[in-house]
Design a protein that fits this description.
Layout lengths: L8 H19 L10 E9 L10 E6 L8 E6 L5 E7 L2 E8 L14 E5 L4 E3 L3 E3 L7 E10 L11 E5 L2 E6 L3 H4 L1 E4 L5 E7 L5 E5 L7 E8 L3 E9 L3 H6 L2 E8 L2 E9 L4 E8 L4 E6 L3 E3 L3 E3 L8 E7 L4 E3 L1 E10 L7 E6 L5 E6 L12 E11 L3 E8 L5 E7 L8 E6 L2
Parallel strand pairs: 1-7, 1-8, 9-15, 16-23, 25-31
Antiparallel strand pairs: 1-4, 2-3, 2-5, 5-6, 9-12, 10-11, 10-13, 13-14, 16-19, 17-18, 17-20, 20-22, 21-24, 25-28, 26-27, 26-29, 29-30
Length: about 425
């Protein structure tokens, strides 16, 4: 007797379902039943420049040390400092960051980053900032030194450069253009620049020399000396008018210092003349022109004060002009002596005897031309006309101009 074959279909279906379940459990992490994992994204920045750091090792770990279910993921930041970790199981992950030249951030540090990952989502972490370390690192400091007065490049002179506690002696000023290698620092410090013939300059580095730096142009003030000028032989009418004088100190064709003063101040100071430079002093005073520049020769590296006299009699000449004096009056008689003089300068016009010209009648004003004489210009001067016979006189105050080629006429009426 032949037995019937039993149908194996129910058993096969159960076996297939069992195999699928086993595969699913094996393929998931920590009982996620095959759900897709999550991710973590963020960026790493330099704490000083806030620029992304490339090549930072980013390690994510979950689970306790020694646990069988402990997991680790690894990646590096890109050229912009960004990173991404994917296919992470749902759990709390700790991140650590490490790169040569920076202080590492471990998962146990005070600034540790802990992130909860959720399936099918990407957790975005706030930017992490890493501090550079500067042990055994050097940076290059460069710059250009120029004269603050004339703007020229300083190429000669003994120079000293001090960076905090590091000193470079017996250097040329142009060596700063090439640059100095100094240990990198994180604290504030100063660079001191000393060049012979110039005042010392100081540059503050805030936050230390964290990277190579070009300081650009540093303007150095030349060491200087001063000239104190003293006015002498000032005429009374000039002193009373108290004009303003402009003074210039020339080195070659260039004015290196100037000053302005009034005559009544009796002295003036020209300061800021570069040390060791000989100068020619020229001054502009109303009504005067200089006979020639006054040259001052300082000795060597002199930086003090030089005293120099400026005589309106010896170093200057007054600008003169012809003045024609005319005396008029109805009571001038024949044979009278008529004359005139300038009250301030003492200049006198020769006395002229009056004669009775043909056709002269009583009551007609007489006009006596005393001729010309030269007097200083630019100031108010008083001219006095007089008649010797009866002692009559009169005066007229006028300003003698210095811009006329012909004689300036002064008319005085004497009655």
């Amino acid at each position: 007797m032949i037995r019937e074959r039993r149908n194996p279909k129910p058993f096969g279906i159960l076996a297939a379902l069992f195999i699928v379940l086993i595969v699913s459990l094996v393929g998931c992490e920590k009982g996620t039943l095959g759900l897709k994992g999550g991710g973590i994204s963020g960026s790493v920045l330099d704490s000083r420049t806030l620029v992304g750091i490339a090549g930072v090792s980013v390690i994510a770990t979950t689970g306790e040390e020694g646990d069988e279910d402990r997991a680790t993921k690894f990646t590096t930041s890109d050229s912009n400092g960004n990173y991404y970790l994917g296919s992470l199981r749902a759990d709390e992950w700790s991140l650590s960051f490490d790169k040569v030249g920076y202080v590492p951030l471990g998962d146990t540090a005070s600034a540790a980053v802990n992130v909860v990952v959720v399936n099918n989502e990407t957790s975005h972490v706030p930017s992490v900032r890493m501090e550079q370390t500067y042990e055994n690192q050097y940076v290059t400091i460069t710059g250009t030194l120029k004269d603050a007065v004339n703007g020229t490049l300083i190429t000669y002179g003994n120079a000293q450069f001090v960076f905090a506690n590091q000193t470079f002696n017996n250097r040329l000023p142009t060596e700063l253009t090439t640059g100095f290698r100094i240990p990198a620092r994180t604290d504030d410090f100063r660079m001191i620049v000393s060049v012979s013939g110039y005042e010392t300059a100081s540059v503050l580095f805030e936050g230390g020399a964290l990277s190579d730096r070009d300081l650009g142009t540093i303007m150095l003030q030349p060491e200087t000396y001063s000239i104190v000028g003293r006015w002498q032989d000032v005429p009374g009418w000039v002193f009373q008018a108290n004009p303003t004088a402009n003074i210039f100190a020339y080195a070659g064709n260039r004015a290196v210092a100037t000053a302005t003063a009034t005559i009544n101040e009796q002295s003036f100071t020209i300061s800021g003349i570069p040390r060791g430079v000989s100068v020619s002093i020229e001054a502009e005073v109303k009504g005067y022109r200089m006979n020639g520049p006054i040259v001052v020769y300082p000795s060597g590296d002199f930086q003090g004060t030089i005293y120099q006299t400026f005589s309106l009699k010896n170093n200057f000449s007054p600008i003169m002009r012809d003045v024609r004096v005319i005396i008029t009056g109805e009571n001038i008689r024949t044979n009278d002596f008529v004359g005139a003089y300038c009250q301030e300068t003492g200049t006198r016009w020769a006395q002229t005897i009056v004669t009775n010209p043909p056709g002269w009648t009583i009551g007609t004003p007489r006009v006596i031309d005393l001729g010309t004489n030269q007097v200083p210009t630019g100031y108010d001067l008083t001219f006095v006309g007089y008649i010797v016979g009866d002692g009559k006189s009169n005066d007229d105050t006028i300003r003698v101009d210095d811009d006329g080629a012909e004689a300036q006429i002064v008319t005085i009426q004497v009655n």
